């Protein structure tokens, strides 16, 4: 970058507000250099500092006896027994994926995997949560194609299975798509690596790929709204190389088996800047770095560019003195760069030199973190939406016609076209993937255990009532894990919202945090990691509030799990948790009546826990092997999905054929299918636990038949459900 004079105007261009730049001047006691200004700007960006969100993030529950590491590290860590830990996190790559969908999504996947393996874990599963604009929008098809190809291209090359996720479409994402990637890894509890620097005089080591000019000020771009000029920011989108990352993974894990690493940090957002500052800050130390030693792939790079580059596949380590040559040999064996670029000291300062020792930055580390702005922004609660009487929005046609509309709508339609591009079976431990169970199931290699993994949120609920919406995102994750037979343990979150400087938007964030916190506490389901992505707006139009939740649970015996497919004739279908009645903010209301209003369903957290624990125990005891939670589209869509998954019909006898009963999205409900001789045992258990339950039909035949309301062949349902996305991507459907 051409050297420029540091002025208030340049500070503003770098994303610093006037009062923030004034604080920089006060801290420095002088005008900062260009490199120093760049460091302040990225460390104090929304993306790195969480300056608008951290006051509310602190209200989320983060502790439990099984939590080894909560928020504040590269990823969260939970104990899964037998000396083993699951390490996981979800993170966004929204802005880059809109500008350059393939590389944006690919590097999002690469970045989240590095967050996990930098802590010593081998990644064993990837998930994603994607939101695109209206199918009719001219950019949507291109963005879907690029994002899916990027996710598959990177994850498949890494040899890590992508086992599930979710994909929704809504016009609110026309100008700002969401690409949230999640990785889960496994490690031994006594071999977890952290990022706090330690050891006066210890070497600072750079490993991985060379540094280029890609991604400079990527963190700053992710902290601003989009404008008409945003697509000119392609140079700030990083370029990924999954083959190099695979080598980096193996080299890091090999070195971790040695007694050499003191601390390790991924170079993610803000690259060398954030990794060095965070390591020093956590350890209370200083660092001198010689940027002449940094491996560079482009000529004439200056200190500003090297410090702010977000080139991919790089790590920063602190090694024990004397271990450098052994470490160098490992990384050279894997054909990766290795360079000692600095040393630790007790000065508490970050000193950056280049060009033969010239000092380009000399600054205290602590203020970069401790004095980062922390705003308690004004916020307004979202006005309450009315509760909608289901009788007032009766079916516009037949029940079967309504079901056909819902199973073919973009949010419910099969995403097979997407997940078939992902390798879900590599590593050989995938038990259930997308569409096979309510949570993906991945065996803990060499054991009887399995991880249950899910991503969930209903943005339309969050738009109408952020508190209920945030709560529902958590309970849906908890319910999906329970429905697969897992014990829910912890969550990671990805908080995607619009401009927090608007009180209405900030109120959505606050409400979602309140709802999430209440649900997490009630369900013993703490938050152990996460990411906040704000300023998801284009030309003043924000996305739907989207607090995506990634949940992880454990099955002690992987053979005792449940899938959604009706796999035999003669099974008794039992609805657990009561009847539906609530159509506010439902897919039924949107798809059949063109309305998005109404309060989302209320949530009884005691009932949620009670019902889920009963279902999970029934699965553990072998009573239930077929289970699906009631969610988008309500009871009838849930049963239709079970029929399509099993390629088998069902005959239903429901006492209420109203819109609320059939398509209401009331919470805390499941449909299970059990053998006739098991049905009475399960119903008795439900009665003893005070859980509403009733027989609603039996499996068999080739049609889904609803007594008093008609029938439809399962093949026709499957054609509608499977056909929309392939037709859309081929240009046959709008």
The overall average pLDDT, rounded, is: 95
- Approximately how much beta-strand content do the residues carry? 15-25%
Known CATH architecture of one domain: Alpha-Beta Complex
What separation lies between the terminal Cα atoms? 44 Å
Number of strand segments: 28
CATH topology of one domain: Phosphoribosyl-aminoimidazole Synthetase, Chain A, domain 2
Give the helix proportion (percent range): 25-40%
Question: Your description of this structure?
Answer:
This protein is α+β, with helices and mostly antiparallel strands and 734 residues long. It has a domain at 562-734: Phosphoribosyl-aminoimidazole Synthetase, Chain A, domain 2 (Alpha-Beta Complex), CATH 3.90.650.10. It is 36% helix and 23% strand. The protein has 25 helices and 28 strands. The strands form 5 sheets. Strands 8-10-7-11-9-12-13 form a 7-stranded mixed beta sheet. Strands 23-25-22-26-24-27-28 form a 7-stranded mixed beta sheet, with helices on both faces. Helix 7 (101-117) packs parallel to helix 10 and helix 18 (466-484) runs parallel beside helix 19. The model has no long low-confidence stretch (mean pLDDT 95).
Gist?
Helices cover 36% and strands 23% of the residues.
Please render the helix and strand layout as text.
Layout: H1 8-13, H2 18-28, H3 34-43, H4 46-49, H5 54-57, E1 67-69, E2 76-81, E3 84-92, H6 94-99, H7 101-117, E4 122-132, H8 140-158, E5 162-169, E6 178-188, E7 203-208, H9 218-221, H10 242-256, E8 261-266, H11 271-283, E9 286-290, H12 303-308, E10 314-319, H13 324-333, E11 337-345, E12 349-354, E13 358-364, H14 366-370, H15 399-408, H16 416-419, E14 430-432, E15 440-443, E16 450-456, H17 459-464, H18 466-484, E17 487-496, H19 503-523, E18 527-533, E19 537-538, E20 541-542, E21 546-555, E22 572-576, H20 587-593, H21 605-620, E23 626-629, H22 634-646, E24 650-652, H23 659-663, E25 670-674, H24 676-689, E26 693-699, E27 703-706, E28 710-713, H25 714-729
Parallel strand pairs: 4-5, 9-12, 17-18, 24-27
Antiparallel strand pairs: 1-2, 2-3, 3-6, 4-6, 7-10, 7-11, 8-10, 9-11, 12-13, 14-15, 15-16, 16-21, 17-21, 19-20, 22-25, 22-26, 23-25, 24-26, 27-28
């Amino acid at each position: 970058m051409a050297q420029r004079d540091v002025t208030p105007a340049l500070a503003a261009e770098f994303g610093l507000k006037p009062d923030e730049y004034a604080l920089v001047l006060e801290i420095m006691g002088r005008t900062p250099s260009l490199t120093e200004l760049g460091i302040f700007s990225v460390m104090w960006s929304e993306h790195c500092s969480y300056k608008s969100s951290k006051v509310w993030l602190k209200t989320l529950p983060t502790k439990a006896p099984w939590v080894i590491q909560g928020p504040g590290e590269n990823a969260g860590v939970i104990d899964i027994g037998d000396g083993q830990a699951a390490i996981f996190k979800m993170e966004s790559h929204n802005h880059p994926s809109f500008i350059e969908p393939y590389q944006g999504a690919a590097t999002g996947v690469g970045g989240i995997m590095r967050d996990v393996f930098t802590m010593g874990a081998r990644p064993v599963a990837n998930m994603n949560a994607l939101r695109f604009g209206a199918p009719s929008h001219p950019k949507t098809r291109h963005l879907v194609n690029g994002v899916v190809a990027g996710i598959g291209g990177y994850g498949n090359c890494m040899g890590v299975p992508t086992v599930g996720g979710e994909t929704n479409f809504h016009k609110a994402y026309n100008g700002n798509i969401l690409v949230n990637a999640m990785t889960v890894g496994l490690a031994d509890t006594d071999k977890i690596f952290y990022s706090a620097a330690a050891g006066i005089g210890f070497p600072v080591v750079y490993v991985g790929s060379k540094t280029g000019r890609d991604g400079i000020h990527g963190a700053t771009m992710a902290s601003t709204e989009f404008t008409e000029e945003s697509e000119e920011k392609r140079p700030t989108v990083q370029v990924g190389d999954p083959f190099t990352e695979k080598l980096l993974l193996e080299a890091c894990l090999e070195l971790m088996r040695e007694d050499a690493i003191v601390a390790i940090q991924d170079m993610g957002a803000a690259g060398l800047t954030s990794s060095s500052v965070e390591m020093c800050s956590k350890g209370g130390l200083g660092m001198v770095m010689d940027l002449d030693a940094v491996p560079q792939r482009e000529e004439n790079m200056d200190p500003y560019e090297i410090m702010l580059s977000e080139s991919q596949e790089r790590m920063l380590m602190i090694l024990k003195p004397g271990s450098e040559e052994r470490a160098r040999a490992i990384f050279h064996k894997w054909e990766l760069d290795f360079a000692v670029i600095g040393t630790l000291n007790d000065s508490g300062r970050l000193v950056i030199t280049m060009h033969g020792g010239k000092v380009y930055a000399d600054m205290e580390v602590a203020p970069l973190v401790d004095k980062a702005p922390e705003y308690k922004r004004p916020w307004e609660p979202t006005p309450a939406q009315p509760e909608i009487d289901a009788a007032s929005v009766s079916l516009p046609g037949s029940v079967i016609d309504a079901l056909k509309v819902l199973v073919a709508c973009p949010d419910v339609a099969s995403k097979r076209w997407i997940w078939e591009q992902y390798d879900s079976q590599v590593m050989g431990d995938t038990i259930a993937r997308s569409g096979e169970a309510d949570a993906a199931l991945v065996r803990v290699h060499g054991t009887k255990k399995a991880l249950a993994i899910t991503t969930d949120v209903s943005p339309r609920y969050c738009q109408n009532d952020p508190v209920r919406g945030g709560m529902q995102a958590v309970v849906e994750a908890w319910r999906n894990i329970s429905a697969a037979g897992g014990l829910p343990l912890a969550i990671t979150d990805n908080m995607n919202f619009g401009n927090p400087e608007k009180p209405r938007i900030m109120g959505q964030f606050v409400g979602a945090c309140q709802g999430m916190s209440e649900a997490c506490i009630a369900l013993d389901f703490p938050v152990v990691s996460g990411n906040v992505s704000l300023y998801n707006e284009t030309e003043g139009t924000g996305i739907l509030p989207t607090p995506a939740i990634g949940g992880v649970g454990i099955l002690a015996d992987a053979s005792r799990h449940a899938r959604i497919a009706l796999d035999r004739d003669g099974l008794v279908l039992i609805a657990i948790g009561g009847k539906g009645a609530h159509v506010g903010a439902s897919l039924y209301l949107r798809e059949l009546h063109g309305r998005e209003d109404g309060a989302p369903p209320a949530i009884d957290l005691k009932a949620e826990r009670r019902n889920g624990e009963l279902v999970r125990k029934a699965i553990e005891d072998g009573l239930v092997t077929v289970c699906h939670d009631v969610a988008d589209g309500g009871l009838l869509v849930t049963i239709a999905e079970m029929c399509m998954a099993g390629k088998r019909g069902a005959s239903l006898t429901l006492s209420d054929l109203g819109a609320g009963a059939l398509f209401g999205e009331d919470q805390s409900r499941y449909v299970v299918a059990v053998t006739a001789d098991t049905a009475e045992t399960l119903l008795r258990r439900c009665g003893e636990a005070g859980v509403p339950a009733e027989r609603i039909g039996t499996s068999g035949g080739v049609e889904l038949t609803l007594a008093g309301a008609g029938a439809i062949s399962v093949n026709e349902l499957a054609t509608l459900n499977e056909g929309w996305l392939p037709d859309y991507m081929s240009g046959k459907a709008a």
